[in-house]
Design a protein that fits this description.
The structure is a homodimer. Chain A is α/β, with parallel strands linked by helices. Chain A has 13 helices and twelve strands. In chain A, helix 8 packs parallel to helix 9 and helix 10 (about 225-240) packs across helix 11. The mean pLDDT of chain A is about 90. The structure holds a DNA duplex.
Chain lengths: ~325, ~325
DNA sequence: ATATGTAGCTAAAAAGATTTAGCTTTATAA
DNA sequence: TTATAAAGCTAAATCTTTTTAGCTACATAT
């Protein structure tokens, strides 16, 4: 029971491979294949369960109906949910998605891009690392259709879908201020990537706007590679200040999760002792004690927009760059 | 700057494509290509950054150094972590992984299997749906190398990697019993898949072993498609019993998460009013109030074993079926 | 009667690698 | 000296599909 090819169908019907191919690619009309033969071919192809050989087709056509998706880490719900929504959207147009994790590393991202291009994905969706500007420029030069998600490079014109990070932080701070909190700290990654930069800038600006004082030690930076330890340290340092903050903002879900865990371990009462808001909703924030107020990103819309933008690029072959910024949503819980 | 092929290298060195191909496939020795030429070819290939055309190679060889992974839902940490570990293990042997979500649906699983096989993945790792026995038999007949993970079909001999579900439940019940709990309930999916079946059977047996009475209403079944609502309902029903349970076991992380959320919403004090243990560790269980005691599956080992088993199959071409059952680990927290 | 057009189909090339079968050339044996 | 073997390489087939260029047969126009 080995695979049937065009040849098999052609032989059984006494026509040429060409005819069969034309019919099955819906080019019968424009090539004046008779209706009669068309129907026969379609019927037999169906019966024999014909599916075109992916390689032969790829080799000849150079396209694959596949898009590559490179994200930071598939085991982070933020990324995995985006991946899921992109898959769904792509499937609507009969595209498949190959997902790969970069671990937020420059080299791994570059390597994955090359691997995926070798596999002849027709386009890419990428959450780039801050060091990936070279390869992004290279992609532009190669005219590979691609869309950046979550982060972008202000100096490079690209397709991009992300959120209004500044407004998100601002709404959180306004919310805290309205609740009477004035001493607000931020635990964040280093401001290397655009999304983080915007969050930190948003933090400074929002404090200013509300006439709140920015204490130097209230911004704590942690690293990607030792996030958990750094977050613990950052919290301990904030708590040990002679003038400790009354509220903490976490810049991402991962920081927020480690942060909550450590605050609980330190028996800090939330929100009585310290109030907490995290960027990114995460399933665990609903369950935690107390449920955490979050700045939620509209993941489904981000993913859908990114997919649509990419598919449009690939189809029209027109190169144009669009930047889509989505609003975020403050979900007020108990923290 | 278009891609270099064998031809280009051959031309530049004044040798044939064949020679270049043989060298780059490490078949120089057995084909008596001189060391001199071998080195030249390798050097130039490196310089020109040659990578073989994936399609041409696939078309000719019929293999792709790619494995397909079909899981329930990539956005569930249980699956996404498995996916991640499988990727890592496969990468060690230069294999790539294509991941796809079945949504635990029969048709989608079958469709994905066909799509992945069309793309000529060299093997498959699958968490099958309970209705997938046909396609599993078909895969066997086609002699496609594959490994089942998390669930299997007792009546079909296959490669399988999973955990000792019965022992996991048993250890949880023993733990509860030692803490003085006697009225223990279970919220689970329908016993359609092997893992769930084993958990339910494990529940009954462990109760018997500890001489605990099994109340009929203490086993509540929920469905895959309306898990959240069903869990809420199940909990409400358990709470409303004239003789309500003192402890609840959740059969999976998803059930456990919804369960905890609802217990908190109902202001049930944990563990004072009701003690809780869930199968599967989940990041949220560490953060929740209180942190949830869980039966943890050794995800990394499961994934690694599955990958190794598959790679071994693909290499040796020998058909043999191995069933690997891993021990689970009770992580005692505060619930 | 010849040219032009068109309907309906097909032969053959092309894509880029792998692999088979075999061709030179030189060394060794008879 | 001639036959045999071995070393070192290559031409051509092959994988399956898409696509180009064009063939055949019949109808219509000149």
């Amino acid at each position: 029971m080995k695979k049937v090819g065009l040849e098999e169908i052609a032989k059984q019907l006494g026509v040429s491979k060409t005819t069969v191919s034309l019919v099955l690619n819906n080019k019968a009309k424009e090539n004046r294949i008779s209706d009669e033969i068309m129907k026969k071919v379609k019927k037999l192809a169906e019966e024999l369960n014909y599916t075109p050989n992916h390689f032969a087709r790829g080799l000849r056509k150079g396209t694959t109906n596949t898009v590559g998706l490179i994200i930071g880490d598939i085991s982070n719900p933020f990324f995995s949910r985006i991946a899921r929504y992109i898959e769904d959207e792509a499937a609507k147009e009969d595209y498949h998605v190959i997902v790969a994790s970069s671990d937020e590393k420059k080299e791994k991202t570059e390597q994955l891009i090359h691997i995926l291009l070798d596999k002849k994905v027709d386009g890419l969706i990428i959450t780039p690392n801050y060091q990936n500007s070279e390869i992004v420029l290279w992609l532009k030069k190669q005219e590979v259709p691609f869309v950046l998600v979550d982060r972008y490079f202000p100096k490079i014109k690209t397709n991009y879908v992300g959120v209004d990070n500044g407004a998100g932080i601002s709404s959180a701070i306004t919310h805290l201020y309205e609740q009477g909190y004035e001493k607000i700290a931020l635990i964040t990654y280093h401001p290397l990537m655009s999304n983080i930069k915007e969050r930190i800038n948003g933090f400074r600006e929002a404090l200013k706007k509300n006439n709140l004082r920015l204490h130097n030690q209230y911004i704590q930076e942690v690293s990607y590679t030792s996030t958990e330890d750094d977050v613990k340290l950052a919290i301990d340092q904030l708590l040990a200040l002679t003038n400790p903050p009354r509220a903490i903002l976490f810049a991402t879900n991962k920081i927020g999760l480690y942060g909550m865990e450590h605050l609980n371990a330190r028996n800090v009462r939330i929100p009585q002792d310290i109030s907490v808001i995290s960027f990114d909703d995460d399933p665990a924030f609903r369950l935690s004690y107390p449920p955490v107020t979050v700045i939620e990103q509209p993941l489904k819309e981000i993913a859908t927009d990114a997919a649509r933008l990419l598919l449009e690029q690939m189809k029209t072959k027109k190169i144009k760059y669009e930047e889509i910024v989505k609003p975020v949503n403050l979900i007020i819980r108990k923290s």
